[in-house]
Structures are given as structure tokens and as C-alpha cells.
Design goal:
Length: 229
């Protein structure tokens, strides 16, 4: 495969909800540890990244756009782990060029943007030494992005970890190879909370089959599905 494999990896309640705390420390800890067994990189949508890692509001007027064009910027940066930020609206406000996952695993940032991105935002990313890929006119070209992640960063598997909309975007374009659900022994029962996939009204007919099931110490489950041939 000339692209990164995609595994959607989510922590969910029994009724499939991804928002909120379920109070099950063992399965939550297992979910986090499993991420790094699956992959050396996680991918997140803009809202998730802003919630956990990049909530700032940079003043873009201070950045010089001389020489900035709509090309990928690939500085010679090495990292054992990466966090991939999918940001259509150039809103991620990074103060540093990494995300400390659970305060114990430092993941260097890669931004993925689309062509409406402001040149000043690209200059801002360069000032922080955040590599970026410009891919797609208004929506992400996932095939292009996944090929580049493997070619330039040796990311064989990308764990896509939400939110629901970026998970749904990968599903709509049929690039989800596996689904990894860590299920907490808890029912949310709240229709206002999102489930693992939000395709924004698009019907998707991809079929998956069980790859593995593991019972966890707190009564939760880890269920892995692989796309059916």
C-alpha cells in the first residue's frame, strides 16, 4: 500500500456516544495506550484539536507572506510520534509545535489545510516549525494526504481519533480500513451527544467484519473491525 492505512480509533459508550466522561478509568487508559500500539500518529479534526491542543487565537497580521505559496512545507523535522490536524478553516491556534498526549507522549504537529487557507496562516505555521500539507480545493484530498504522510513521515498507519465529522469524512471517501472501538461499560442515553461517525447526511454503505474482541478489566470491550472485501 502506497498510503497510510486508516484505523478509526474511538472511545465510546455502549450506545455509541463519544462525548463526555464515562467514569471508567481502566478502559479509558486502555484506549490511550492502544493508540500507540496501533500507530505512531493520530489524526483529529479542527474542533477536537482546538479543544485539546490548539485553542489560541494568533494575530495573523504580524506575519510576512513574502515567498509564501500554496505548496507543502516540509522542514527536516524528525519525531517518533505525530499528531495530524485536519483544519479546513485555518483556525487551529498553536502556541507550540507539539501536543503532549495525556502529558506523557510528545507528538509533533503536522497541519493539513485546504487551498482557501490564508497565506498569513501558513507563515504563522512556518514560524512555529509546524510542517503542513495543502491538499484539496475546499475538501481534503485524503488519498493525496495519506500518500504524503507515508512518503514523507513514514506513517504506515494513521489512527483517526475524532471528532465525529472527520471520522465521517474519511468514511464517506471510503478510506477507513479498520475501526477500533474501546467500549466503556456505560450507557450515555443522551440524543444530543454525537456518535463515532457523522457523515452530515450522506449515506455510506461500507461493510466491515469482526477482526478481534477483547474484554477489559472494568467490563468494557475492545472491538476491532476490518473492511470486508
Amino acid at each position: 500500500m502506497d498510503r497510510s492505512k486508516v484505523v478509526v480509533h474511538m472511545y465510546v459508550s455502549i450506545d455509541g456516544k463519544i462525548d463526555g466522561s464515562y467514569g471508567n478509568a481502566d478502559s479509558n487508559r486502555y484506549y490511550s495506550d492502544e493508540l500507540f500500539r496501533l500507530s505512531n500518529a493520530d489524526g483529529n479534526g479542527r474542533e477536537t484539536i482546538q479543544m485539546y491542543a490548539a485553542a489560541g487565537h494568533p494575530d495573523l497580521s504580524q506575519y510576512d507572506i513574502t515567498g509564501i505559496d500554496y505548496q507543502d512545507w516540509l522542514p527536516n523535522i524528525k519525531s517518533e510520534t505525530w499528531t495530524i490536524a485536519f483544519d479546513r478553516k485555518d483556525k487551529d491556534g498553536w502556541n507550540v509545535n507539539y501536543f503532549d498526549y495525556n502529558n506523557h507522549r510528545r507528538m509533533h504537529t503536522i497541519e493539513v489545510v485546504t487551498k482557501p487557507v490564508k497565506k498569513a496562516y501558513l507563515a504563522y505555521l512556518q514560524s512555529l516549525e509546524i510542517p503542513y500539507t495543502v491538499s484539496g480545493e475546499t475538501d481534503f484530498n485524503f488519498e493525496d494526504v495519506l500518500r504524503k504522510l507515508k512518503q514523507h513521515y513514514q506513517i504506515d498507519t494513521l489512527a483517526v481519533c475524532g471528532g465525529a465529522v472527520i471520522n465521517g469524512a474519511f468514511l464517506k471517501t471510503h478510506f477507513v480500513d479498520e475501526i477500533s472501538l474501546v467500549i466503556a461499560p456505560h450507557v450515555r442515553g443522551d440524543s444530543t451527544k454525537k456518535a463515532a461517525f457523522d457523515t452530515l447526511g450522506t449515506t455510506v454503505q461500507d461493510t466491515f467484519k469482526i477482526k478481534a474482541v477483547k474484554q477489559l478489566a472494568d467490563g468494557g470491550l475492545h472491538v476491532t473491525f476490518v473492511k470486508a472485501d
